[in-house]
Design a protein that fits this description.
By secondary structure, the protein is α+β, with helices and mostly antiparallel strands. It folds into 3 domains: 53 residues, Roll (Structural Genomics Hypothetical 15.5 Kd Protein In mrcA-pckA Intergenic Region, Chain A); 86 residues, 2-Layer Sandwich (Alpha-Beta Plaits), CATH 3.30.70; 81 residues, Alpha-L RNA-binding motif (Alpha-Beta Plaits, 2-Layer Sandwich), CATH 3.30.70.1560. Helices cover 23% and strands 30% of the residues. The strands form 4 sheets. Strands 7, 8, 9, 10, 13, 14, 15, 16 and 17 form a 9-stranded mixed beta sheet that branches. A 4-stranded antiparallel beta sheet has the order 3-2-5-6. Helix 1 crosses helix 2 and helix 1 packs across helix 6. The radius of gyration is 21 Å and the shape is elongated. Bound molecules: uracil (URA). Uracil (URA) binds next to helix 5.
Length: 238
């Protein structure tokens, strides 16, 4: 069960506010009956009519969450014949990745053929939180943590505020595990942020994206997003 205005916003290309307005004005029918209460819930089999048009819930959109392995490119086709993230998913739909992870980065990647959602998620104004865990060469000290938090200059522009936690320092290998939460999605952002301070990222994994994490998924495995997860993503970008 999902709230009516959420479902209308998701399938009808309306903002949540517009959807609420249409409901209040009595312009929304569920299974042929006017529903003008905002809190109403609907199930996926309900037929919803908005302003005279039936919502097409069969737009055949598919949404996947992949735990991307290393040595796979985040594109739909690779000119060098390397394996792509799309090759890992068993579907005939023309899905594509939402954003990028580097060839050697592992972790959470969404793939879909829903261009509206994909574009919104990738738009900088959406400010979707992404949590990365990086293994970097050297001992990351407190002053550098502060710099990462407040922003460092990469490609001539300061990065936005980040949340940064040191998870572990390995004395033997002289490496530090750092958790970094950012909402920008600039090219090679995490690697460049560390590079700006003189560290090299030797391993990088994305553990979270918005409301999603990798729980239950081994590297290379994937699953479909649930209806609820998709509606939550929509609510985050509206
Ligand atoms: N930042 C990077 O440097 N690489 C990625 O793959 C993702 C974020």
């Amino acid at each position: 069960m999902e709230r009516l205005q959420k479902v209308i916003a998701m399938y009808g290309d309306y903002s949540r506010r517009k959807a609420e307005e249409l409901i209040e004005k009595g312009k929304v029918l569920v299974n042929g009956e006017v529903v003008s209460e905002l809190g109403s819930k609907v199930k996926s089999s309900d037929v919803i009519e908005v302003d005279g048009t039936i919502l097409d819930k069969n737009r055949n959109f598919e949404y996947y969450l992949l735990n991307k392995p290393r040595e796979v490119v985040t594109t739909t086709k690779d000119e060098h014949g390397r394996k792509t993230v799309v090759d890992l998913i068993d579907t005939d739909a023309r899905i594509y990745p939402v954003g990028r992870l580097d060839y050697d980065t592992t972790g959470l990647l969404i793939l879909t053929n829903d261009g509206v959602l994909a574009n919104k998620l990738m738009h900088p104004s959406s400010k979707i939180d992404k949590v990365y865990v990086a293994k970097v060469n050297g001992k990351v000290d407190g002053s550098d943590v502060k710099k990462l938090r407040s922003g460092v200059i990469i490609d001539g522009r300061k990065t936005s505020k980040a949340s940064v936690k040191i998870k572990k320092y390995n004395k033997k290998n002289n490496t530090t595990i750092v958790q970094l939460t950012i909402h920008e999605g600039r090219n090679h952002q995490v690697k460049k942020m560390f590079k700006a301070l003189g560290y090299e990222v030797v391993k990088l994994k994305r553990e979270k994206y918005a409301n999603l994490d990798l729980n239950g998924l081994k590297v290379g495995e994937y699953r479909r997003l649930t209806f609820k997860e998709v509606t939550t993503l929509y609510s985050l970008v509206k």
